[in-house]
Specification:
Helix content: 25-40%
Number of helices: 5
Number of strands: 8
Structural class: alpha+beta
Strand content: 25-35%
CATH architecture: 3-Layer(aba) Sandwich
Distance between the termini: 31 Å
């Protein structure tokens, strides 16, 4: 049974591994070689565990998806921005990403947000569109990575 729970600092290495491995598999063609390597290296827990703990601890909203004690996905950000959303590829199209996004959006509403912005990877644009996000511009270069800025009004 998959549960969504709050991130704990002891989850750092396993969460970073999900981010790094998922990015390598699905996003490595979405930027310059240098930018892709910089992203993957930053999320390498063997190289950057302390930097990752610091970065993760600064996230106001952070949830992970767990299946039978194994971390399979994560979402983090603040009340008006998603910073990261990654789900293990074996769980793509199973509803895990949607459940993480729903939990994130509910937290944003509780914190008084009217909208949520994000920088979608090219691979993830269709997922976000299905979740109600709209492109705000075309594809942009963000420190060497191709991204698509998107936004959703959550004002109820």
């Amino acid at each position: 049974m998959i549960i969504i729970r709050k991130f704990k600092i002891v989850d750092t290495a396993l969460v970073a591994e999900i981010v790094s491995s998922t990015f390598k598999r699905y996003n490595k063609q979405e930027g310059t070689k240098e930018a892709v390597n910089r992203f993957i290296n930053f999320y390498n827990p063997e190289k950057n565990i302390e930097k990752l703990k610091l970065a993760f601890s600064k996230s106001d909203i952070f949830f992970i998806a767990v299946d039978n004690k194994k971390i399979i996905g994560m979402i983090r950000g603040r009340k008006n921005r998603v910073v990261n959303l990654f789900v293990d590829g074996r769980y793509h199209k199973s509803g895990v990403g949607s459940r993480l996004m729903e939990k994130f959006e509910k937290s944003c509403i509780k914190k008084g947000s009217k909208d949520i912005k994000l920088r979608a990877s090219i691979y993830a644009v269709s997922f976000y569109e299905k979740a109600g996000y709209k492109k705000t511009t075309g594809i942009r270069n963000f420190i060497g990575l191709k991204i698509c800025p998107m936004k959703k009004n959550i004002n109820i």
